[in-house]
Prior knowledge:
The protein is α+β, with helices and mostly antiparallel strands. The protein has helices at residues 57-65, 131-139, and strands at 7-9, 17-25, 41-48, 52-54, 69-73, 95-99, 106-108.
Amino acid sequence: MTKDMPTLTFNEIARHQSMIARTKVVSKLSPWFNKVELGEEFMIPMSHGEGRFVASEEVLKELEANGQIATQYVDENGHATYDIDYNPNGSMLAIEGITSKDGRILGKMGHSERSYRGVTKNIPGNPDQKLFESGVEYYS
């Protein structure tokens, strides 16, 4: 561990956030996204107090160049944003999910596993990132 490693820290509003956030797949490096399209947007449950992704400019540039930024918080027009109405924790570059360099390890803030229980029943938009279906197929 070094001081330059990316981390998750307290939300910019310094309290817990619980909401449905719009995210967009911005890299297909990861097999976890094999069953969705690049640029596809999803409505994902969020619930956390320490979900803000932070990293040095150098690390952010490296993640971007390597295609490791998997998903971002986006507004209604599909644009990555720092607006708290869409980026509930203030993550740098609106990052919601990242991957390892080979794409096989995925770390994300949203709770995709909570979508199947009807949590997004009255929320317009697609809640199913097909993460688990993609993962099972790839790793089987």
